[in-house]
Every structure is written in structure tokens, then in C-alpha cells.
Design brief:
Elements lengths: L2 H26 L2 H31 L1
Helix pairs in contact: 1-2
Length: about 60
């Protein structure tokens, strides 16, 4: 598996985990958990987009 594919998959995984934490924080009224979820979700989005950019660079090299 290429690095770009791994980054895209891991990024989506972090987005999902972050969204779950964020919702759990809202349900339990735990602002700390909610904030951690938002951070993880946004970090996952960044990681996913890094994978997309890496894929584009790989395509340009061909």
C-alpha cells in the first residue's frame, strides 16, 4: 500500500474516531472530550488531504 493511500485511510479513521468522541462529549456534557474529538477529527481531515496531495504528486511524476 502506498504512503498516500495509508494517509488517506488513517485520516478518515481519525475523522470518524474524532466525530464519535465529539458526540460522546456532547451527550455526556464533557467539554474536554468534545474538544479532543474536534481536534482529532480536524487532524484526520488534514492527514487525509495530505494523502490526496501525495497521490497528486505521484501522478505528476508518472
Amino acid at each position: 500500500m502506498t504512503t498516500s493511500t495509508e494517509d488517506k485511510i488513517k485520516g478518515r479513521l481519525h475523522e470518524v474516531k474524532g466525530a464519535i468522541k465529539e458526540e460522546a462529549g456532547k451527550v455526556t456534557n464533557d467539554c474536554c472530550l468534545e474538544a479532543k474529538g474536534k481536534v482529532e477529527k480536524n487532524a484526520g481531515k488534514v492527514q487525509h488531504h495530505v494523502g490526496v496531495a501525495e497521490k497528486a504528486v505521484e501522478e505528476l511524476k508518472k
